[in-house]
Specification:
By secondary structure, the protein is of the alpha/beta class. The protein folds into two domains: about 120 residues, no CATH class; about 210 residues, Rossmann fold (3-Layer(aba) Sandwich). It has 14 helices and nine strands. The N terminus is likely disordered.
Length: about 350
């Protein structure tokens, strides 16, 4: 799975990490007694971030939903629950919580540990490309290195290219397409997904970000209900986890819809269908950008002659490729053959 821009780059994370102290002694095996005592001993925002981080680290949680460490995960839980921004000024770190807030946070900390529920689902929101989105089990937790492309202007790939109509294919929560609409006010964006429940969440996020005039939702199995539609840019973060990988994934991922994760034995069932059909939905100078994660190696081995351009991000390669319409057309026969094999 992929990791978005870390909340750790925000000022609140810096003071959270600076203030991190060992406090494991606050916890005992008798949860009821501990709950009462901890409620009395912890009172400030930084107290709860520190306490949650200690508990998360001790529990051996998986940090794969946009965070890679216990402190960032704890800060997301505490600040998100209190409806505070991730770049909260350090002066507020000593802000005291009400009794009700403390009780609620302790309950969420226990749920994160005991049930392995992703923090985004516990607090109901996630940050992506500098924007806040609603998040719940109707769709995957927003996360993708494509956020970095959006914030960086898709440079240099869109330089000199006309872009007006764009598509977020396999949109899930809508985070990629909606972020494009917010960052690029001249773009018209279509959000497409096969999941009715995911699209309902996407509609809520469209309203949440006030982009309803330029963003529409289309229920479709990839391009099936997009006949005649053409775009200057198609961006997709489709399912690409192999069945073997899914069987070994940490418990946190069980809370997400499997439909949004798996894509056959090698993770390429849906990416190959996208490659096979995308050229028919791109304008002449159109671009296709797709994330396939760890399935990058399988894809390049299957289609060695296709000139995939694999992008580098601040954290390195993340399994995201760019192809233009011309390349898709030149290699259409080999792509189609590979796609058809698995649909016989």
């Amino acid at each position: 799975m992929t990791v978005d821009g870390r909340l750790g780059s925000q000022s609140c994370m810096r003071w959270a990490q600076t203030s991190f102290l060992d406090g494991g002694s606050l916890y005992s095996t008798t949860h009821g007694r501990t709950h009462c005592r901890v409620t009395k001993e912890l009172s400030t925002i930084i107290d709860f971030i520190r306490y949650a981080a200690t508990r998360f680290a001790a529990a051996g949680l998986c940090f794969g939903h946009s965070h890679d460490n216990a402190i960032d995960e704890a800060a997301h839980l505490v600040l998100g629950t209190l409806s505070l921004p991730p770049d909260l000024p350090p002066a507020y770190a000593q802000g005291r919580l009400t009794g009700q807030e403390r009780e609620h946070l302790l309950t969420l900390i226990e749920q994160r540990i005991e049930r392995r529920i992703p923090v985004a689902y516990l607090v109901g929101t996630m940050w992506f490309a500098g924007l806040q989105f609603k998040s719940d089990p109707r769709a995957l937790v927003p996360r993708s290195p494509i956020a970095e492309l959006i914030e960086d202007g898709f440079g240099p790939w869109l330089e000199g290219r006309k872009v007006h109509r764009t598509l977020d294919l396999c949109t899930g929560s809508g985070c990629i397409g909606i972020a494009m609409a917010v960052h690029y006010p001249d773009w018209q964006v279509d959000l497409s997904d096969v999941s009715k429940s995911a699209l309902q969440l996407a509609r809520e996020n469209i309203e949440f970000q006030h982009v309803g005039e330029r963003v529409q939702v289309i229920e479709s199995d990839l391009f099936a209900h997009l006949q005649g539609a053409r775009y200057h840019l198609i961006v997709s973060n489709p399912p690409y986890v192999t069945e073997a990988e899914y069987a070994q994934m940490p418990a946190e991922y069980v809370h997400e819809p499997k439909l949004g994760l798996t894509s056959g034995e090698d993770g390429l069932d849906l990416p190959l269908r996208i490659l096979d059909e995308a050229a028919n939905h791109l304008f002449e100078e159109g671009l296709l950008i797709v994330e396939v994660g760890e399935s990058e190696r399988a894809l390049t081995a299957l289609l060695p002659d296709v000139p995939f351009v694999w992008l580098d991000f601040k954290v390195g390669s993340m399994g995201v490729f760019v192809l233009d319409r011309e390349a898709l057309q030149v290699h259409a026969s080999s792509i189609h053959a590979a796609a058809q094999v698995r649909h016989r």
